[in-house]
Amino acid sequence: MAMKLVLVIFAICRLLVTVGLTMDPAELLRLVVDGQLSLDPSDVETASKDFGLMSRAEPLAVMHPASAEDVARLVRAAYSSAKGFSVSARGHGHSINGQAQARNGVVIEMSGGNRAGGRRETAGGVVSEKGLYVDAWGGELWIEVLRATLEHGLAPKSWTDYLYLSVGGTLSNAGISGQAFNHGPQISNVLELDVVTGKGELLTCSEKRNAELFHAVLGGLGQFGIITRARIALEPAPTRVRWIRVLYSNFSAFTKDQEYLISLHGQPSSRKFDYVEGFVIVDEGLINNWRSSFFSPSNPVKISSIDSNGNGGVLYCLEITKNYDDSTADSIGQEIEALLKELDFVPTSVFTTDLPYVDFLDRVHKAELKLRSKGLWDVPHPWLNLFVPKSRISDFDEGVFKGILGNKTSGPVLIYPMNKDKWDQRSSVVTPDEDVFYLVALLRSALDSRDETHTLLYLTNQNRRIFKFCDEAGIKVKQYLPHYTTQQEWMDHFGDKWPLFYQRKMEFDPRRILATGQRIFTGPSLVSIAGHDQL
Q: Which of 277, 319, 335, 362 is an active site residue?
């Protein structure tokens, strides 16, 4: 304990010397008392990298908060320091391009924190059955939220494909999966937030209270505040899922059917699917190996066995589900059959499985465990996520899926449409200016192999070729989980929203302390304690 205290005091001394930290002695004591500020080499190393493994930035220290007030206290210290220092919140470390890193600053490890109630038994959040919501700590993982809410027969409405992500992390971007066409992204299902602003203020915000901060933080890339609590809307949870995949050799038929299915969002549950996604198959290995628990090993899918109609060997897989429980089990088959009759997929390509609701939502974790066992998880991930306008998705198919990608890709290529009216335009997220737009997610892994097409250099260059193609073809894509290196690129990304984005930054984080790893604004500014800019 004594050694731990010495290390913590050393961490604060380092901040005092390096960034001109000025704090009341009582504030310093509070940072020290629980040993929350760490210089432990393993903590610093973990905070220096992320899932992408393509950038590294070492912080001065790492903080493990015990409460939202701990977070506020640290940010107030940064805000009042003479030179300023950056502060970034880190959830599960699943960023791709160093977005949660804080070079020469402090990274706040949000995982394992207060858990919204200060007691271990509240892991996953505090559930209100009457109010149909859960209050979750910002560093809570969605898998923990799911487990906690299922104990009450409830679950959030909108998900991400991978549940080992933090609540604050996905809400700072959007949070999307196959339910988004119906319920909108996760940020459209938040009732209230507790946020620590760049001034160190701990504020509760919602549609009716501190509304400007509420909308700014949702999809705000961590620029306006650190989410310490989120109140998330819930609905009665189903018990089982009928999971269906069908194949297409014709892209127009594929997108027509996807767009038809998401147009049913206003229909009763019996007349629509609960989840609509899809993916592109340019490499036969992917359909049999990625999420391979879906297909029976004794009955693998062979691309060569399906007529691609001169499609260059490219196929498209529509992935859909229907949720049900005991009360609807007898009718689920008829409901699915009626919906499938309206679709134009390859007739012999229907693959169906049935599984518990929680197993479906946690499906990607099984793939993670397999990749980890083979040493293929902790590798660079040059992922590229794009929102593509509906009017240009066919051009994107011709130029990218049938062109740039060739017949090999080292990871899934997702594609599915969403309804723009399910996205609150007051949030900080930007999407294409069309009623329907597609997510195209190239989730590739760079491997150290003899195959050049799997190397990090090849894949990053391929991403650049995709951007160049879209630019030259006039396809106005928007990056999801965006990454740019200049402010002009960020201004172009936000377009008409940039003035409001900048205004919100100046209001809630005027010293540019938060989330500097996003590279939207330059680092912390030199400001007097009174807050007057000295630049």
A: 277
